[in-house]
Amino acid sequence: MSIFKWEPLTPDQEQRVLEAIAAAELNTSGEIRVHIDKYCKTDPVFKAMNLFTHLKMEKTNYRNGVLLYVAKLENKFAIVGDEGINRVVPADFWESTKELMKVSFSKGEITEGLEQGVNEIGVQLKQYFPYEDGDINELPDTISYG
Q1: Is the separation of the CB atoms in 86 and 52 below 8 Å?
Q2: Residue of 91, 103, 110, 137 with fewest CB within 10 Å of its CB?
Q3: Pairing of the two strands 143-145 and 76-81
Q4: Hey, which CATH number is domain 11-130+137-145, 3.40.50.300, 3.10.310.50, 3.40.50.980, 3.30.43.10?
């Protein structure tokens, strides 16, 4: 058994990503989650879709949750949205967000890439799912790890 714990983000980095999630969700009824794995032995979109269900992200009223999935040590990532989002957005909806993140990730700047991705997801969600009075946070603003 290893005495070393895998920590993909420092506490400060994690706090920055959590603050980005909270800020992005102020403008939308959508919900954003981040999951970070060490490795992804399959297609990252397939893995993200399975995690989406495992994290019970389909439990939002408007089915407007978004999962940003990262396999840090393999440099893979995916963005998946729930069926409410997929019904109203173009097929390549997340491509510009992925390209934005890819620039930071390629420089080894995972925190910056996650922050940029979360911010852009918030902007995109606002178009289709603007914030509504009385909106509640339906999913926890946490980062899950695998």
Answers
A1: no
A2: 91
A3: unpaired
A4: 3.10.310.50
Q: Which two tokens stand for residue 76?
A: 């893979």
Closest by Cα among 63, 98, 96 to 81 = 63
User: Are 82 and 64 within 8 A, CB to CB?
Assistant: yes
The residue written with tokens 């995690």 in the block is 51
Amino acid occupying residue 9 = L
Distance of CA 114 to the CA centre of its chain: 8
What is this structure's pTM? 0.92
Residue identified by tokens 């899950």 is 144
pLDDT in tens, 13-24: 999 999 999 999
